[in-house]
Specification:
Helices cover about 60% and strands about 0% of the residues. α1 (about 5-25) packs antiparallel against α2 (about 30-65). It has one domain. It is an all-alpha fold and about 90 residues long. It has helices spanning about 5-25, 30-65.
Amino acid sequence: METVGSLIDKITILNLKVYHIKEQIHSKRYDDKYIEECKERLKILNIQRKDLISELSTLFADIAMNKRKIKVFRQFKMYNDSKYKFPSKS
């Protein structure tokens, strides 16, 4: 089951892919065949993004209606806490 964070992460990555595909489509460096391939990829990326946004909207609605809960994961970082450091070998 997807979380809010994982969905936002996937949407962000797709947004970056869309941005870069559009750059290639509008570039004069590529031939027509490659640009058509990029346009097809862009269609697929937009469908995927639309699906993820819909899934995120459904998740937010479920949370608002108390059908689902957001689980908070605590961060326990041991590497900056002196009580968890090994004694030095000197």
